[in-house]
Every structure is written in structure tokens, then in C-alpha cells.
Amino acid sequence: MKAAFFTGIRQLEIREVSEPELNRDDAVLLRTDRVGVCGSDVHYYVDGRIGNQLVEYPATLGHEFSGTIVEVGPQVKNLSPGDRVAVDPAIVCGHCDQCRAGRLNTCRNLLFMGCPGEAPGAVADYHVLPAMNCERVPDSMSLDEAALVEPLSIGLHAVRLAKPKPGDRIAVLGAGPIGLSVLLCIKATNEATVYMTDLFDNRLEVARRCGADWTANVGQPPSTGGKLPDVFLDGATAALTKEVPQGLDLVFECSGDPACIDQAQELLAPGGTLVLVGIPRDERVGVDVHRMRRMEFTFKNVRRQNECVGPVLRLIEKKLIDPSPMLTHRFALSGIVEAFDLVADYSDGVIKAVVDVSGEA
């Protein structure tokens, strides 16, 4: 079968590998249909790392995906061959202290698909996975949309951690796929006013379609990989402060830019909460600890998601979430390099690119 591999910085190849065998009673053999290109995938592609997680070449890739069940183990009762599924790419042990406490996303023995040194990446024709990692998708949902369930589940987990109250004033910094996922989940589960900023007008237009109440472009995009100029952040802070002079109750930082973490503190009202969702390039970022102390801010970190795949599917099925505006580009497997370059370079108005691995409808 075919599988994709990172082979160097901005280098990616499709290679032939052995097909996996179903060797667990509680597992399924899954055909991969669609894989979304995630920002963390792009970190590995462009930088060869996220913080201290270093890629060792060749390395498999991808974790946002949907597929079709080919075969099930004898203990699997809730899935059948032919079922279309969304996949939770986090394979947990089920018996450590974190799993027993219901914190599956911080499992001590977690193996995450496409993460260096952990589980094989999603961009391969077939996978064997625990059945518990697969959720059947409704007939009304496309395979492309099902591949967006994983980033949407991160959005829902972030919202659940933040616990917004009716009437809260909320900002989402960054209108990429994760920021839009947070926005959609806020609007699906709460009555709140949401303010959104980004560098790209097309993303802000999609944010408005997804329910953002107020949007602002914080300036012209810097060159690829460049630091966000402070003058743009100052302008966004001023605009939002004018709009909400008392400050915001919640800020979701979804860009991963360290400067935006500073900006978030300027926007919060005393007692406010900053939810860190975006992934910075570096291992350390700075904060104004004295402002944080004086204003009694709460910082919350988001580690992927925790049992939110099923709830997101139900929100989509009930039409409380429409993920389709995020889907901007679609590529065949043969075009995966083009897909990664497009996302890495923010080209052609891309928000979410999906790779069609199987060619099945």
C-alpha cells in the first residue's frame, strides 16, 4: 500500500509499505479516505519539530482523518464493514492514573498518530486501530467534513475547559481552522458575543459566516515565518478596547504567535481567562507575570481534546455546527506536496486543505 513520509525539511514522498494486519480482537482494519492538513503537520514539514518534538526521517504524517471500516475484530460490536467513521488519532492505554481519572488526552502512555516516535501517521491506505478510536458518521455527512471532526473536537474541548457563561464577551485570536473550530463550538453551545481577529480578510469573511459578531484585520500578513509586527497588534488591541472598554471575559489564543499571548492579557478584564489553544514554534514564551497577578487572570492550556469526537458529530448532525465553510481546497494523494506547500505558505486563500487518499466518494 501507499503511505506518505517526511524525508527532510519541506520534503515529502509517497512510498510503498506493507499493509497492516488486523491482529487485535478489539480493533478494526480501516481504509483511509480523507486526511486534513493540520498546522502541527506543517510545523513538522517546515521546521522539522514542534518544541522539543523532533522529526527523525523518514517519518509518517497526518492525524485528521476519516475512513471506511474494512474488517472488525471479534470483540467489536458497534462497528461493521462499510461503516464510514471519523477517527480520534490519540491511542490511549486505558489503565494509567490519567485514563482512570477521565483525562484520556494526558494519558501517560498516549500514542498520537503522526507524532514523532509515537503512532504511524494517517496518510496511508490502511490502518489498524482500536475500535474505540472510530466514531460512525451520519449518512448526511461527507467524508471531507468527517475529516474536520478532529480539529472541531479540539475547539469543543477548549470551550468546555473555558466554561463560558451566557452573555460573556469572548475574543478568538486567529481565524485559521482551530480558531474557526473554537468559534463554531462557542456558537453551538453558548449565547455569547464573539470578537475575532486575523491577518487575512478571507478568513475573517469565513469567521463571519460561522457566526463571529465582530471581526478585525490586525494588519497586512508578514512574510512566511515572520513575527507579527507589534504595530498591528497594537492596532487590534486599540480597536477591541474601544469596542469593549471594560475588557473581555475570555480570550482564546489560537494563532500560536507569542506576541498574541501578550495581546490577550491586554484585552482581558480583571478576573478574565486566557485559553491557550495555538501551538507556538518555540519551547518558551514570555508573559507579563505582574499584570497576570494584579488582574488575577486564569490561564488554561488545551491539550488536544478529550472524548469530544462523538459530541461534535452530534452537533453537526443536529445542524448546530456547519464545518463546510472551512473546506477551501482538496487534493488527490499525488498532490500532497502541493497541499502542504499551499498551507505552509498561506497561499490562495487556504483555510483547510483535505487530501483524498482513497478516491472514494
Structural features, described:
This protein is an alpha/beta fold and 361 residues long. The chain has 2 domains: 181 residues, Medium-chain alcohol dehydrogenases, catalytic domain (Quinone Oxidoreductase, Chain A, domain 1), CATH 3.90.180.10; 147 residues, NAD(P)-binding Rossmann-like Domain (Rossmann fold, 3-Layer(aba) Sandwich), CATH 3.40.50. It is 28% helix and 27% strand. The chain has 11 helices and 20 strands. The strands form 5 sheets. Strands 3, 7, 8, 11, 12, 19 and 20 form a 7-stranded mixed β-sheet that branches. Helix 6 links the parallel strand 14 and strand 15. Helix 4 packs across helix 5, helix 4 crosses helix 10 and helix 7 runs parallel beside helix 8. The longest helix is centred in the middle third of the chain and has 14 residues. About 3% of the residues have low confidence.
Number of strands: 20
Tell me, briefly, the overall form. globular
Highest CATH level, the class of the largest domain: Alpha Beta
Any idea how many domains? 2
Helix content: 25-40%
Main structural class: alpha/beta
- Ends: how far apart? 20 Å
* Proportion of strand residues: 25-35%
Radius of gyration: 20 Å
Largest sheet: 7 strands, mixed
CATH-level-4 superfamily name of the largest domain = Medium-chain alcohol dehydrogenases, catalytic domain
Low-confidence stretches: 221-232
**pLDDT averaged over residues:** 93
**Helix segment tally:** 11
CATH-derived topology of the largest domain:
Quinone Oxidoreductase, Chain A, domain 1
